[in-house]
Design brief:
Layout: E1 2-5, H1 14-20, H2 24-33, E2 35-41, E3 44-55, E4 58-66, H3 75-89, E5 94-100, H4 104-112, E6 116-121, H5 124-128, E7 134-135, E8 138-139, E9 143-149
Parallel strand pairs: 4-5
Antiparallel strand pairs: 1-2, 2-3, 3-4, 5-9, 6-9, 7-8
The structure holds coenzyme A.
Residues 19-20, 64-66, 71-77, 99, 103-106, 108-109, 112 line the site of coenzyme A.
Length: 150
């Protein structure tokens, strides 16, 4: 598996981005402002992450997704660790990420990759997403904010 930056003019795989974020409008907004990195198995794209500069020396990992058939095999962890390394190499001092209160696996993954919970953006998903999101039998309402110094 090779992880590389998406080349200028190359289309990001929207179907993968939508796995992590059900809002096409929000996805379009951050891919226009951020940098996309893809994981390829041969010529096939199996994963993606997006880094978005937010404040001075701070970048947010706004999307990380792995094609369903390749999930659970360590690809997601490799992408998150690569995102942290890329952010550090590009001079950022802090990397942040946010996920739903119902995203149990994602909360585990991010903490295993060194992120710590810094706050809760209450009612973020109920305010900004038209459709109700339910995961692991839990209504997704709040965004759990995580961060790490790099
Ligand atoms: N409890 C404890 N650990 C858990 C867990 C749980 N419920 N669910 C996952 N994990 C751990 C795994 O054990 C693994 O850690 P390990 O390597 O120490 O064993 C780690 O989290 C992730 O495993 P990995 O195989 O690398 O994940 P993946 O390739 O399936 O990718 C996602 C993870 C989230 C990117 C992938 O499932 C995905 O694309 N989901 C849909 C999109 C999405 O939700 N993106 C995130 C939006 S915030």
């Amino acid at each position: 598996m090779l992880i590389r930056k998406l080349r200028v003019g190359e289309m990001p795989p929207i179907h993968l981005l939508l796995l992590a974020d059900p809002s096409p409008k929000i996805v379009r907004d951050y891919i226009s402002r951020g940098e996309c990195f893809i994981a390829e198995d041969g010529n096939h794209i199996i994963g993606i992450y997006v880094l978005l500069p937010t404040r001075p020396e701070t970048v947010e990992l706004v999307n990380v997704a792995v094609e369903e058939v390749h999930q659970g095999k360590g690809v997601g962890k490799r992408l998150v660790l690569d995102a942290i390394k890329t952010a550090k190499n590009n001079g950022y001092k802090t990397i942040e990420i946010g996920t739903g209160n119902s995203s149990i696996g994602q909360l585990a993954l991010y903490q295993k990759c060194g992120f710590r919970i810094t706050g809760v953006d209450f009612d973020f998903f109920t305010k900004h997403y038209a459709e109700e999101i339910i995961e692991n039998g839990i209504l997704c309402r709040d965004m759990i904010r995580l961060s790490q110094t790099i």
